[in-house]
Specification:
By secondary structure, the chain is α+β, with helices and mostly antiparallel strands. Helix content is about 25%, strand content about 20%.
């Protein structure tokens, strides 16, 4: 019984949500798909602070950044969340074929273990 109790205590302890300087998460969430062009101004700040996402759960990332613009289920139950930084062709105003995006990779346990901006 002690092992079970310890396990529950372990999984219920999430890493606290980080604060991001020069990133307005309210504006980020309002700019779904980067169609309004407001996310692009936050790219440098995200690049400098992207390690803050490491160790967060999927739900914590969604709490911070909102639902991803698209996601991918990969082998061994890994997931990738993609957040556009530049408008895609779906916006109708895209200037690029391959818009830049924030990519967060999650382990099978739902913990962010890799973050990149491409």
């Amino acid at each position: 019984m002690l092992v079970y109790t310890t396990f529950i205590a372990f999984i219920s302890c999430d890493k606290p949500l980080p604060a991001f300087s020069d990133v307005d998460l309210k504006i980020w969430n309002e700019d779904k798909g980067a169609c309004l062009g407001k996310r692009a101004g936050m790219e440098d700040a995200l690049q400098r602070q992207k390690e803050k996402f490491i160790g967060l759960t999927e739900m914590q990332v969604v709490t911070l950044l909102g639902r991803p613009d698209h996601n991918e289920l990969y082998k061994r139950n890994q997931k990738f969340y993609y957040y556009l930084i530049q408008p895609s062709k779906d916006c109708g105003t895209a200037n690029t074929e391959n818009p830049r995006e924030l990519t967060i990779r999650f382990t099978a346990m739902g913990i962010a273990n890799e973050v990149s901006i491409e």
